[in-house]
Design goal:
This protein has six helices and six strands. It is α/β, with parallel strands linked by helices. It has two domains: 33 residues; 200 residues, 3-Layer(aba) Sandwich (Rossmann fold), CATH 3.40.50.410. The longest helix is centred in the first third of the chain and has 31 residues. About 7% of the residues have low confidence. The structure holds zinc ion. Zinc ion (ZN) binds next to loops. The site of zinc ion has 5 residues, from loops.
Length: 256
């Protein structure tokens, strides 16, 4: 009987110990809880040097779908993009352009080049092929932009950034970045660094697609997959870029 009691007491002590340990590790986890950008984006510690970063040159980043389904629209994309550049070159202030063409491959055709030196698209550069790996294109673009800023001691929260996405279909080919990961990255750069994102899509519900990756519904727009739709797409991009260059952010009614 005594032995039984001893066993029971020992079991209770052991059980108590386990509970205490697990309670402590829960507490440790709380203490180690990190701000939103931790483990999502490369680390940037704001210092007084960050004050040296100017808002300009504004970073205008175009992520353009060139997947096979864009085939019938290539001429319109070339014309639309070129007229977008022409209009932006007339705006006051300085800007740099980064342009990515993506299908299941990723091709950066401009890398933070001075807006005035940004080259026109041609049919040798822009043609349709392949599948739609939008998440990988977004992930790489965000990481590379932050990487360049870190190297050049630019504070990502002080420099104005606009990322514009044009796509004509649902994501179907990314291998590196999940939708959940991209959502965290977009939310973190929007919240911590005031980056602007706009999403323009054809053949999909752009508002719900945008929201599913952390972009506000009113910063999304649908375009008709025809000449008029593509022309309008680049006009919307021009408006967004004007907003960011003039006021630091895309107008709240931009998507209307
Ligand atoms: Zn900073």
């Amino acid at each position: 009987m005594k032995k039984m009691l001893l066993l029971a007491v020992t079991a209770l002590i052991i059980l108590g110990g386990i509970c205490a340990v697990s309670a402590r590790s829960e507490k440790d986890k709380d203490v180690k809880e990190q701000p939103v950008t931790e483990n999502i984006l490369p680390k940037h510690n704001h210092t007084e040097n960050c004050e040296n970063t100017s808002a300009e040159p504004v970073q205008i980043i175009c992520i353009l779908d060139r997947s096979g389904s864009m085939q019938s629209l290539t001429e319109d994309v070339i014309g639309g993009y070129n007229s977008f550049l022409e209009k932006q070159k007339k705006e006051s202030g300085t800007a740099e352009v980064t342009t990515i063409l993506f299908d299941d491959k990723y091709e950066k055709i401009e890398d933070a080049v001075n807006l005035n030196d940004a080259k026109n698209l041609t049919s040798e550069i822009y043609y349709a092929r392949g599948n739609t790996a939008l998440m990988d294109a977004l992930g790489k673009t965000i990481m590379e932009t932050l990487g360049t800023m870190a190297k050049e001691n630019i504070c990502p929260a002080k420099r104005r950034v606009l990322v514009m996405i044009m796509t004509d279909g649902l994501e179907n080919a990314s291998t590196e970045y999940s939708k959940a990961k991209i959502k965290s990255m977009i939310e973190a750069t929007t919240k911590e660094y005031n980056w602007n994102y706009v999403f323009i899509g054809a053949n999909i519900d752009s508002a719900s697609e945008a929201q599913s990756i952390g972009i506000r519904a009113d910063h999304s727009a649908n375009f008709a997959p025809d000449s008029g739709g593509v022309r309008e797409t680049f006009e919307r991009m021009d408006e967004a870029a004007k907003d960011v260059r003039e006021r630091g952010k895309v107008n709240e009614n931009w998507g209307d």
